[in-house]
Design goal:
- By secondary structure, the protein is mainly alpha-helical.
- It is built from 45 helices and 9 strands.
- The strands form 2 sheets. A 6-stranded parallel beta sheet has the order 1-3-4-5-2-6, sandwiched between helices.
- The longest helix has 18 residues.
- This is HTH cro/C1-type domain-containing protein.
Length: 836
């Protein structure tokens, strides 16, 4: 072989590079210290030396591979008692992966080939090693193959043999794999994405030809084999907010950061003082384990506040110091660049351009904004699939039936891609301008959607692009193009209503545009939108203010004028403002005169809800039934809120059968995977409770309570109220106390004062149950005085609870009071003090 290498004019290092073998192997072979080299090694050498056909066969024969040789016993290569070869899992290396670890262990025991896929730095290696450790035993050996330094697909078999510990060139891969019993061996092939073809070829041979072998692969890209089971490794869960200490402490991302920070700063711990900062830090880092680890390494010299502030240039901050792991994972920038550099040019450009769309974004937005040389619109689905396969994008499967296909980009990847787009001359400006143009055209297509039979689909699809619309509005405002920004807000207004978590952005843009546009009518319409969205997010006082301003700017009989007046009436009823109720007759009359059946029905439903809150149940029922009768008209569609209002009215009137019928219609009209399920589940629970079906009511309350944790909704207080009533029935008074306290706090925060009258009678019963009779009687006396002298009165279900609890309480003196809302808030404050 030495002569052939010299004839080829190659050094040992050059031949090693061409053949994909180590320099050590070349040196050992040329020194004659390997009597019988591996067949795979000989083939690679022949290719590296440029041998063809007969010369290659002669070379193989000279190395002893012209005929079939006997199989080497398994024990010769890897003794059956040897449990582990290669990299071991790091102690305490996994955080928040218990469910994933159990699943992967099960998959390894049931399948021959499992691939863990995910973006760089997500923790695939540690998860794979921990899962392999779970299945290793006296009877099951684990061999870990680190493919990081393997440069050629053809060198993968040699890397696996090296991992077995065989002497260079002494055996073939077939020799060490043959003869194994099922479950005898698991091979972990780590960091496979850059030699994917080689790994796929060998893995396919292993699972098809050697039934005793299990293969676990980590890669940023699936192998694409028919026997492969793919599991995507997700980032660690981050806190949903930065205020709830218990929720922050239970976050896996926070736990990992704190553990790693304590290694470089032993006194570091999560506290009430630093919890909000740590939560925001973990959110900014997307829960990506590598980023958390690198950030925590800085905690020895920097405060958490400083680390968070420095994340605007995260690649500079998180550049080390990491001295272990694959070379391309020692800095955050290297980790991302490793994947991005391997993309085709169209895929890379699509990633760059999509980075400025916001996250998540839709396929429609990508086609509308990001196409153009070198990206053909017809290729976008294929390119998106490539980016997903290579773990640079993640599909958003949650509520896919409602919002369509969406994709999100980890913030770390987005910043890398955004920098790539920014470096390409004027591309960033061009594509931001294209985003404005696309969004402007998109909202034009929403005209008339409210009256169309597929309005839910169209508005949900628009809502899915809310992050992209944010980009367009930021660009339009930076250009001072307030007319365009206002047109986008007006066209997009309904789509913001579908998720309370996004409505805050809509409020901001509607109010900012209202301040800057010249047309007063347009300004009024924008303020009406701000009012509607404020009501959705629970800020009733802000809603009242915005609606009040809008009423003075918009024509009162126009569509948006009717909406503003209806919102003003609705928010007023929540705030116990009797002035609002006086407008209902005129408002209903004007809506009917408007001529639009759909608008008229909507106004009647809004006014019916307001009257129901005020205890005027027959009048409320009349208006709500008028809405229901209008459903026969084109453009008027079922709405679960109005059905629920009818259910509540019938419940208060004592008509349980009708209340159940309306509640079931509400359930049937709500999308099956609507992210805000609280409303209907809570409504059904109230009916079942009043019917005495307590177990079913409890199940419905549990369903609704789980939903409350994810958003703030209209009827959350009712879920808390009925949780208290159910808990009080079973003697769980601490649960009852907690639920009532939560309900009162929520209503005070939101300003929905009228609903305090539903909650406080239950609070009286809870206080009596807790033995706090003096406080209970004081509150009971005030409520009795309210019922006699104030407007609105308590609803029948609340009044019944109060009567059961107030047999001996005297009526409070000094009523009526001039300000009903202030009186209700004062009672609520006293109640919270008693419940604390």
């Amino acid at each position: 072989m030495l002569d052939l290498r010299v004839q080829a004019g190659l050094s040992q290092e050059e031949l090693a590079d061409k053949a994909g073998l180590s320099v050590r192997t070349i040196r050992e072979l040329e020194a004659g210290r390997v009597a019988r080299p591996r067949k795979d090694s000989v083939r690679l050498l022949a290719e590296g030396l440029g041998l063809r056909d007969g010369d290659a066969l002669q070379f193989l024969a000279a190395a002893g591979h012209a005929t079939v040789r006997p199989v080497i016993a398994v024990a010769d290569a890897a003794p059956s008692g040897l449990r582990w070869r290669g990299t071991r899992p790091i102690p305490d290396g996994l955080v928040g992966r218990d469910d994933e670890l159990a699943e992967i262990e099960t998959l390894l025991r049931q399948n021959r080939l499992v691939t863990l896929v995910g973006p760089g730095g997500v923790g695939k290696t540690e998860l794979a090693l921990a899962a392999a450790d779970r299945v290793s035993s006296v009877d099951t050996a684990v061999v870990v193959v680190d493919l990081t330094t393997v440069q050629r697909d053809a060198a993968v078999p040699s890397a696996i043999l090296d991992a077995f510990g065989t002497a260079p060139g002494t055996s073939d891969l077939d020799d060490v794999l043959s003869g194994r019993k099922p479950g005898d061996l698991v091979i972990v092939e780590d960091n496979a994405e850059h030699v994917l073809d080689g790994v796929a070829t060998v893995a396919n041979r292993m699972v098809r030809s050697f039934p005793g072998i299990g293969v676990l692969v980590t890669s940023r890209i699936p192998l694409g084999l028919p026997d492969e089971v793919v599991r995507r490794v997700q980032v660690l869960g981050v806190p949903a907010n930065d205020k709830d200490l218990d929720e922050i402490a239970s976050s896996p991302a926070v736990e990992m950061f704190c553990r790693r920070a304590a290694r470089v700063r032993p006194d570091f711990a999560l506290t009430a003082e630093n919890a909000a900062t740590v939560a925001r830090l973990c959110q900014r880092l997307d829960g990506l384990p590598l980023a958390l680890e690198l950030a925590a390494a800085r905690a020895g010299s920097l405060s958490v506040e400083t680390i968070l502030a420095a994340l605007d240039d995260r690649f500079r901050l998180l550049s080390g110091p990491r001295r272990f792991g694959a070379p391309h994972q020692r800095t955050l920038a290297d980790t991302i660049a490793w994947s991005v550099d391997a993309l085709s040019d169209p895929a890379r450009q699509l990633l760059y351009r999509a980075s400025m769309l916001g996250s998540p974004f839709t396929l429609d937005a990508v086609v509308g904004v990001c196409t153009g040389e070198p990206i053909d619109a017809l290729d976008v689905p294929m390119l998106l699939a490539e980016l997903v396969d290579k773990s640079l994008l993640q599909p958003v499967h949650e509520f896919e039936a409602l919002y369509g296909a969406r994709y999100k980009m980890l913030e770390t990847i987005r910043e890398h891609a955004y920098a790539g787009l920014s470096s390409q001359g004027s591309d960033l400006v061009e594509f931001k301008d294209r985003t404005v143009a696309w969004c402007s055209t998109y909202v034009e297509g929403l005209d008339g959607a409210w009256s169309s039979p597929d309005r839910e689909r169209r508005y949900r699809a628009a809502n899915a692009n809310s992050a992209t619309f944010e980009v367009a509005l930021e660009r339009a405002s930076a250009l001072g193009d307030w007319d365009t920004a206002a047109a986008i807000v007006l066209g997009f207004r309904i789509a913001w209503q579908y998720q309370a978590s996004l409505a805050e952005s809509g409020i901001q843009w509607a109010s900012v545009c209202a301040e800057n546009v010249q047309d007063k009518e347009v300004s009024g319409r924008l303020l009406a939108i701000a009012g509607r969205l404020s009501n959705l997010t629970g800020d009733v006082r802000a809603a009242r203010r915005y609606y009040g301003e809008a009423r003075n700017l918009i024509s009162p009989s126009s569509e948006m004028g009717l909406m503003a007046r209806g919102g003003w009436v609705s928010s007023g009823s929540l705030l116990l403002d009797t002035v609002s109720l006086a407008e209902i007759p005129t408002l209903v009359e004007d809506a009917i005169k408007h001529g639009d059946v759909q608008r008229s029905a909507t106004v009647q439903a809004i006014c019916g809800l307001a009257l129901a809150r005020w205890g005027r149940l027959p009048e409320a029922k009349e208006l709500l039934l008028a809405w229901e009768a209008a459903l026969v008209n084109p453009g008027v569609y079922p709405d679960e809120i109005a059905y629920m209002a009818l259910s509540r009215v019938e419940l208060e009137l004592g008509n349980l059968a009708e209340a159940r019928r309306w509640a079931e219609l509400a359930r049937d009209s709500q999308a099956s995977d609507d992210p805000e399920r609280t409303k209907v589940a809570g409504c059904l629970a109230m009916v079942e409770f009043q019917a005495g079906r307590f177990e079913l009511a409890q199940a419905l309350i549990d369903e609704a309570d789980a939903d409350i944790r994810g958003h703030r909704g209209y009827f959350d207080y009712l879920v808390m109220l009925y949780r208290s009533r159910l808990a009080r029935r079973t003697g769980d008074l601490e649960q009852a106390r907690s639920s009532i306290r939560d309900a009162v706090n929520r209503l005070l925060l939101e300003g929905r004062v009228v609903y305090l009258l539903d909650v406080m009678p239950e609070a009286v019963a809870v206080l009596h149950g807790l033995g706090q009779h003096e406080q209970a009687d004081a509150l009971c006396g005030q409520l009795l005085a309210w019922q006699r002298t104030m407007d609105p009165p308590m609803l029948p279900t609340a009044w019944a609870v109060l009567q059961e609890s107030c047999e001996s309480a005297p009526v409070a003196q000094g009523w009526p009071l001039p300000d009903p809302a202030e009186a209700a808030r004062h009672m609520a404050d006293d109640l919270l003090a008693a419940l604390s």
